[in-house]
Structures are given as C-alpha cells and as structure tokens.
Amino acid sequence: MGAMNGFMIEVDGTGVAVPDGSSLLTAVRAAGVELPSLCSDDRLSPAGSCRTCLVRAGGRIVAACVTPASSGMRVDTGSDDVVRLRRDAVEVIVSALPPRALADGGPGELAHVCRSLGIGPEAAQGAGGRGGDDSHPYVHLDRDLCIACGRCVRMCSEVQGTFALTLVGRGGDTVVAPGTGGPWIESDCVACGGCVDTCPTGAISQPGAARGLTSAFHPAEGRTRTTCGYCGVGCALDVVTRDGEVTAVLPARDGPVNRGHACVKGRFSHGFRTSPERLTRPLLRRDGVLEPAGWDEALAHVARGLRTAVDAGGPDSVAAISSARATNEENYLVQKFMRVVIGTNNVDNCSRLCHSPSAAGLTASFGLSGGTDTFDDVERADCLLVVGANPVEAHPVVGARLLRQVLRGARLVVADPRAVGLALHADVHLRPRPGTNVALFHGLAHVLLAEGLTDEEFLRERATGLPELTELLADYSPDRVADLTGVPAADLVAAARLYGGAGRPAIVYGLGVTEHLHGTDGVRSLSNLAVLRGAVGTDRGYGVNPLRGQNNVQGASDMGALPDLLPGYGKVTDAAVRSRAEDVWGVPVPARPGLRIPGMFAAARAGELRALWIVGEDVCATDPDTDQVARALDACPFVVCNELFLSETARHADVVLPAASWLEKDGTFVNFDRRFQRVRPAVPPPGQARTDFDILWAVAEAMGAGLGCPTPADALAECGRLAPVFAGLSHDRLDREGSVPWPCRSPHGPGEAKLYTERFATPDGRAHLAAAPYLPPGEQPDDDYPLVLVTGRRWAHYNSGSMTRRGGNLALDPVDFLDLHSDDAGRYGLRDGQDVTVESRHGRARLVVRVGEQTAPGQVFCSFHFPASGVNRLTSDVADTVTSCPEYKVTAVRVAAS
Predict the structure, then answer these.
(1) Which of 802, 796, 229, 269 is nearest to 553 (CA)?
(2) Which residue intervals define the domain 4Fe-4S ferredoxin-type in the entry (predicted)?
C-alpha cells in the first residue's frame, strides 16, 4: 500500500515509498543507493546535463535527476551496462580536467564520485591554462576545474536570486563567469557562498578553506552546529574547525529557516575572531588610561564600584544595558543580576532602539510581542506586503526566499521610500515620504473598507474597535493620503486591491515602520490591515511579521531585559507576576519600572546615575545623538563595558571586560519568527576572554551574592519556571528537535508556530483595531536643512561594523556612502565619489557621495557601519511616544563638499 501522498516503486528489487512529485534520483537515494549526479543539487531544479546519474527504468536508460518517478515503476541501477555508462560519463568529464583536479584525495564531490567508481587521478588528462580569478576576498575561481555543470548559475538565480553568474564559451571551453564581465569583485555577486557550496569540483572555492569542502562531503576534524550571530533570521550553520581555529562556516542543509543557504556575514565574516584588535585581557582605567589587569583585580574593582554606587545613591543609581548579541541565558542573567543582586529594574536592551514599537504595537493589537506566523507560512502567501524593510540586504536569506516566492507568482507590494531590493520586483512600489507611514496604512485601510475587501464575519466575531476606526478612516481618502505621503492615489488603490483581493496575504515589515516618533502607531495601523482582512490566526492569511534586526533582539526582550517587564513579558507592576518571580528567585522584586536607555543617559548627565554596565553594545556608535551619549558616559562615575574590541563606548569605560563572541558561546537565540535555537561554542574564546554568562556569575560572586543557575541550560530551565510561555523549552529538547517556537508551555507540546488560531492573547480574546490619527514626524526639512536623511544597513556590513569591518568585507564595502539622487547632486554641485560633510541640527558627519536613483529627490540614505564617519551624531533624540525608540528614519540635514 502506498504512503500518504505518495506511492511505491521498486529499486533494484526493493520496494520504496516516495512522495508525489519525486524524481527517480530521489527514489534511488531513498533506497540507499548512491548515484553520481554532478549537475544536481537538492536545492536546485534538475538539469540532466552531466548524464552521470543514468539508470534503467521502464526498459529505457534515463537520467534519474530529470525523470519523474511513477507508481509501480521498476528501476535498475546496478547492471553492468548501466554502471559502465555512468563511469564513462564521469571519465569523459574528468578527462578534460588537469591532473590536480583529483590529486591528494581531495574532499570535493567529483573526487568522491571518482573514488567510488574506481577512477584514479591518471584519468585527468587536461592541459589546463584557462586561468582564474582571485579578485574577490571570499570567492576564488579556478577555470581549469570548471565542468560547466551550471549548478553555481542555478544557485545564484534560483536560491539567491541575484543572477550574477552565467556560462560563457562553447563546447569544452564553456566555463562559469560573472554575468557583468570583468573581475568577480566588480560583479553583482553578494558573496552568499552558494556557488562555493554547490560547486562539485572546487572550481569555485573559498580562499583558505579546503577545496570542495561543502556541507555534504568529508567533514573536517571538527564540525559544530550553531546559530548565526548576525541578523535575526536565525540561520543554522556548521562551523568547521581545525586545531582550535575556524576554517569554514557552512550553511546547514537542514536548517529550519535557511535550508542550506547563508549570506556574506554568516558564511564568511568570521575573521574578526582572530583580529589583532580583539580584547583578550581585562582593562582598568588608571590615571585616565586603560591598562591590562588580571581577572581577580578586575572583578573586585567592578564589585567595589557597583557597591559604592548603591551605597551612595541606592539601587536605582545603577543601570545595565543588555544586548541582542548575547544569548537568551546571558540576557536572563543580566536582568536577574540587576533585580536580585542590585535591587533595581534599571535594565534595558537594544531592542529599545529598533523593535520596541513592535513589542508594544503587536501586544496591544494581538496580545503577544512576536510575529504572528512562521516564515514557512509567510512563504506560502499569494500576496506579500513588505513595508519599511530591505531584506535583500539586511536579511539576505529571507530576502532570497521572498524573491523566490515572487518569481513563482506571488503578488508583491513594497512600501519603502527607496527603490532597492524587492522593490525592483514589486507589482506596486509605494514610496511614502519618510515619517508618513500611519497615513499610508490608513489610506490602504480606507480602500479595503470602501471596496468591501474586509472579512465581516472575522471583524464581528474576533475583533473590536471597528466603529472608531471606520470613523477615523473617513478622513483618509486616497487623494488626501496622496497629499500627505506623496504616494499617487492610483498606486494606493492598486496596492490595497492586491492585498485585499488575495487569498492568503502576509505582511512583513522592518525598522522603516518602527524607528519613528509614532512607530508604535505605525505597527498598530499596519496590523489593522491584517485584522480587516481576517488574515491573522486563520487559514486566510499569514498575519503581521517583523524582521528582527539583530540575532537575538527577540530573545533579549523575551528574557525580561526590559525596565517594565519580567521574563515572558509579565509586568513588574503586576503583583501576581512579581510573586511568581519572587518564588523562583527567593528575593523581593522592585515594583516600580526602571529606566529605559534614553532615561539612563539623561540620569547620568543629571548626576543621578552612578554606575552603568553595558554588555556588548557600542552605544557611542549606534545610539542617536551620540555626542550626548558620550557626555552621559563621561558624566557617569563608574562605567563597565563587556566587549570584543576597544569600541568607542569602551574608550569611555572605567573597566573593559573581554567577552566571547557568538562562535565561542553556549546557549540559545530566538529568531524573528520566535524559534528558540541552540548556540554552541565551536572554538574557545581568545586569551582570557570569557562569556558574558561567566562574567556575570563572577561579578555576582565577587559581590558576595549568588545567581543560581550555574550553567546556561540551568538558566533557561529557571526562566521556564518563571515564565509559563517558555516552560516547555530546554537545551536537551532543542538538541533533539533543532528549533521550537514560543509560546511553548509544556515539554510535550510542540510550541505555537502560528498564533491566535482560537483566540487572541488580549484580555478579551479579540484583536484590537487601533484608531490613531496621523501625526507628522519629529523633524521637518527647511531652508537650512533641506534634505531628509534615512539611515539603515548595507548588505556587506552589520550594525556598528565591529565584526564585519575586521575582515574581507572591507573589500566589498569600504566606506560609508551617502546615497544622493542625481537631481540633488546637480542642485548642490556634488559628484559621485566626492567627500562631503553632512550636517543636521544635532551634529556633523563626513561621508562619500554615491549618486543614483535609489533615493527620491529630497531624500538621502546612509548606513552607520563606520563609527568614524559620525553618522549617529546627526540623528536626533526624538523618539517614539510610547516606547522611546529613536526616530532614525527622519533627520533633516544639509550636504556640502568637504
């Protein structure tokens, strides 16, 4: 009897159950038979070009990779004639290669196939001499090893969606080449490493790594499965090590989110680990100078400084800033240390600067602070509304998967001021003026209501607030919204009809929604669209899903590293929530909410904050109005900093503690769709560096206090006892299952991947529509500052660049550019590549102009990856009225030649 959604075939006399749509190659491998398939990769469409996977089926000899399996088919793989034909096909391919292609028992796929068929190095007879390309820091091309299988070209187009590679030449001279011509470094390649990973011969390889080393063949001496420490996608990676050093990082084929794919950061940007600038010993400030010290002295100094601050100003004179770079367990320990050892709720994390409006807005609308659906579900949507996000650069694996969905036929609406990434493939690209999101979302909602594109039953049974919203939306006709946002009314209507008419729409958004004066209103107004469509918690859509910026932004907040919330988002003002924490911790928990990050800096400048512990954040580079941040650090009597490098923030510290990186830690991260995944140490920290977990433990001991939970596994277990939404999570379970989403209330339950299928987590169990009017942004351009600056990320770097600037990424993106429209370049007499000074009402930065059409006239864009440029000296302290998230997306500036 056939398997569910499948059927039976016979392979070499053995019955095999295969799913519908399987190829013969899939069926043969399911039977445990190894076939060569040099042009095939499970991640790619079949090509059938190499003829190395020949089998006999139905009386004919066919290529297994391109032949569909059918019920009752009999397949023969082992007869002499079929084996001989496969061997002949491989020998023909090998004969054109130089002898070094098979020398020294190489680890590549071709070498493995030749060994299995008994083909020795002498079969390689080619003369070579076709040359190579070593212009790129991470990708090396050896044309003599290219067999023109096309896997790299298909990987680039089908998986990455960059279309950077092609095959050139004719016959035996056909080789892969960058599609733009010229050297690889000047091509459109985004260094995802997919071509390296799929190449069966080592023709495309990573310099310094073993040729042909992939996730499928010949593991090196050590291989550790972990989770990427860059953006919030949560890619599963295999870190290959030899003699205590990282030799390669490979995307895991069974990674639940990345599925064998990666980006330039996760795949290649690990050179920072061995940078000579890496901190390896504690530093203490003596006579104004940071000098090396031993751990015992440093720990005693930190303990003494914190005790002195508490004695002088009470527990609330101490504060801590935790980190999205840190593990869940480390974030849990930071907030526990502050509440249990110090006795204050003055703890916050960097989600304050990016996605705190998501937590506030999603909680108010639906009840929980995470995205509503898994990314697997989002990928099944027939219409994608992507708002204020450039995932192609900031979340490349997600960007690639979304683009694949669009290329398969999903409709795409992009709302973003810039013409970048997915916007180039959109059915409708809405380009609102920065700071007008709420008006734009209300305009879309107006059309949904006016044209009957809402789910009346859902609104009646599962939502509240419709009368108030309907009254508000009467003022947001397409024509009025066009005046407010600059988006043509016809485009607004077309976008609303696409989203409103879809069978399974999904919303994906980023920091372009949250980093505004009214960012929480933006999240809630965007959420309205999904509620109006009945596309949350139903089979009629895939909700509202934020793309988290850093690797553990979600987890840092989940663990309670927030001034008003305990682990699991229980309010510190709720006596029952505090009581549960007190039962676990054995000490009273302060009832008054603590300081947010901006409040910490203000208190320091006012002389009220006496000690500040900063864990893994370069606040002098990433926080807004950084001149004021630096003044706050200088005003605070005692500053401790855990860091990888002597960052600008660390230069202001009294104690700098050398910390371990994500490659050197044990614990868990939570990605953007609420998946807990394991983080495992692949290599030891350099020198005397320690994990933040160990540092926190040691400081508590030096203060004569105990934190309990001596291991990261114990910390997660304790968190589960305190927060019911995490009660079913443990290291052991994640080691078995790979990833588990929260809420997960039982060790035996699967976790809730899709939220709100029965009721919303609000007090009344309903989704809450928001009727917040549009209000203008915190800054407006004028004659003195005529341009609007938007900041964000570039594909090759990450945040302050402390890790990505210490490696080959500098060759890919060497400076902070200011993107300027050609009209503005002409207006101000600026040319491409020119050094310019950018001034705002708050500060000054120096950048390099890049003239183009990606930004609209009157708008400029830059990243903040190079702190020396001073970009965040420009940004203001204007912040979201609900959460204090800074308005990074709207700053009035002027530009002049330097």
Answers:
(1) 229
(2) 137-168, 181-209
